[in-house]
Design brief:
The two termini are about 25 Å apart. The protein is an all-alpha fold. The protein has 3 helices and no strands.
């Protein structure tokens, strides 16, 4: 997720518990989606779409936090 912000993500994970939680949850959802798409687990289409939407919301929140962090560092 957001690999181009590797340094910012590292710093935020260390300094911001909320960001760390969002990042961890996003990665867990990403794994669930990957498992479902590879048919290692079975989900309905609705369940899979719900996971994808939740994952996207977390990514959007994390991205905004990264932008705010970069702005504060400037």
């Amino acid at each position: 997720m957001l690999h181009e912000y590797k340094n910012e993500i590292h710093e935020l994970k260390l300094s911001n518990a909320h960001f760390a939680k969002i990042f961890e949850k996003h990665n867990a959802l990403d794994q669930k989606v990957e498992d479902a798409e590879a048919e290692r687990t079975i989900l309905t289409d609705v369940e899979l779409e719900t996971l994808k939407k939740e994952k996207l919301l977390l990514k959007d929140e994390a991205y905004q936090m990264i932008l705010d962090y970069k702005k504060a560092q400037a």
